[in-house]
Design a protein that fits this description.
- The protein is of the alpha/beta class.
- The chain has two domains: 3-184 and 357-376, Glycogen Phosphorylase B (Rossmann fold, 3-Layer(aba) Sandwich), CATH 3.40.50; 190-341, Rossmann fold, CATH 3.40.50.
- The protein contains 15 helices and 13 strands.
- It has helices at residues 19-34, 57-62, 80-101, 113-124, 143-153, 162-170, 185-189, 193-197, 215-228, 247-260, 275-284, 298-301, 330-341, 358-368, 373-376, and strands spanning 10-16, 38-45, 69-71, 105-109, 128-132, 156-159, 178-180, 204-207, 236-239, 267-270, 287-290, 306-309, 323-326.
- A seven-stranded parallel β-sheet has the order 3-2-1-4-5-6-7, sandwiched between helices. A six-stranded parallel β-sheet has the order 10-9-8-11-12-13, covered by helices on one side.
- Helix 3 (80-101) packs across helix 4.
- The protein is globular, with a radius of gyration of 20 Å.
């Protein structure tokens, strides 16, 4: 109890480390901030603080959020030790904030090392941990192991679909800890459904991330993707990859195209796109090509065709029938691009990830869950 008999609001520290996951968290941040029984604490780390990847902390600031802690992790080079060193710095820095800020709950999303750092900081400081998008599968990416590790540390599971919730249950987590809330990334996205139902803006989005392999392999695959779309009419927007190992190869392939195509007329390369602009572009796009989860979860919710390249998203539940899978071979990618180009846009897609409102559900669960020793103790 606080002075005067008032109950202190529960302090919820949300950790964000990338432009993509921040976009998915925006509705949750708003819901927590507006909830009368919760106090938002925002921790910004990871790629947000790297100039090479767009210094996207500025997007967070532009949205009007007060940042409670900035924790530097990766240095942004492609050295194999950068991720490991960054993880260590992240755990220490986030843990220091949780203790100083007297946080009650930590919220992380997904499977990247920024989320893992937040999870380790929570569990080692005795802070309760809530995990969004646990139970998903992306077996082609090393981050999948980190997602499952976070799931086993988490006290509260905020699953995006029933299938993900059931997978969490099969991992030994008890049912009372598991909540199906939907994918929070759809909360804002569905506001753009009218754009998606109108005529396409002709833009092809390319979002390709490294899979932790050597730079030469990542460069080869990205080069094939860029070759496969060169004859597709309309503008192409290529977004820089995330900071995972091998990102230098993806960037090198982009640079090669810009050099060999005299500035690559028709191709626009950006380090990052603010969330609202990204959603509007995606909603009206001809297609999205690459291995981002955006093509698996978000694009299908709007009926936008997506070409999913390679195994990075292997096992992840498809959001609809507009996803076209391909191998990393040029012919397979080109065939998938041709199929996506000829697709008729689905105006009323059905998705397993819900129809919005996830942020509000998450805030209510965080405010009403009893934070006691029974929740803290995990026997399986």
């Amino acid at each position: 109890m606080s002075r005067g008999g008032r109950v202190r609001r529960r302090r919820v520290a949300v950790v964000t480390g990338t432009r993509a996951e921040y976009g998915l968290l925006r509705s949750t941040l708003s819901a927590i901030d507006e909830h009368p029984r919760l106090e938002l604490q925002l921790v910004v780390t990871g790629m947000h603080l790297l100039r090479r990847f767009g210094m996207t902390v500025r997007d967070v600031e532009a949205d009007g959020w007060s940042i409670d802690a900035r924790v530097r992790m990766q240095r942004g080079n492609d050295d194999p030790l950068d991720q490991a060193d960054g993880l260590g710095r992240g755990v220490r820095g986030i843990a220091e904030f949780l203790v100083e800020g007297k946080s009650d709950v930590v919220v992380v999303l997904g499977d990247r090392i920024e989320a893992l750092a937040g999870a380790l900081a929570a569990t080692t400081t005795g802070t309760f941990l809530a995990h969004i998008h646990g139970g998903d599968v992306a077996a082609g990416d090393a981050d999948n192991l980190q997602r499952d590790s976070i799931t086993k540390m988490a006290h509260i599971h905020l699953a995006a679909s029933r299938r993900s919730a059931e997978r969490i249950r099969r991992m030994g987590e008890t049912r009372e800890r598991i909540h199906v809330v939907g994918a929070p990334g759809l909360d804002e996205l569905l506001a753009y459904s009218d754009v998606a139902c109108s005529s396409s803006n002709g833009v092809t989005l390319v979002v390709q991330h490294p899979c932790g392999r050597d730079g030469d392999t990542e460069k080869l695959v990205m080069g094939r993707i860029l070759r496969s779309i060169r004859d597709v009419a309309g503008e192409t927007i290529v977004v820089h990859p995330n900071s995972d190992r091998g990102h230098g190869g993806v960037l090198a392939a982009i640079d090669d195209v810009l050099r060999t195509r005299n500035g690559a007329g028709g191709i626009r390369v950006v380090k990052s796109i603010p969330r609202s602009s990204y959603l509007e572009t995606l909603a009206g796009a001809r297609m999205i090509v690459g291995n981002s989860s955006s093509g698996i979860i978000e694009a299908p919710a709007l009926g936008v065709p997506s070409v999913n390249v390679g195994d990075r998203q292997a096992g992840r539940e498809r959001g609809g029938r507009t996803v076209v899978d391909s191998t990393e071979g040029y012919r397979s990618i080109r065939s998938a691009v041709d199929r996506a180009t000829s697709m008729t846009r689905n105006r009323r897609p059905i998705t397993p990830y819900g129809r919005g409102g996830a942020g509000d559900r998450i805030a209510e669960i965080l405010s009403s869950t009893l934070l006691d020793d029974l929740l803290r103790r995990k026997t399986v």
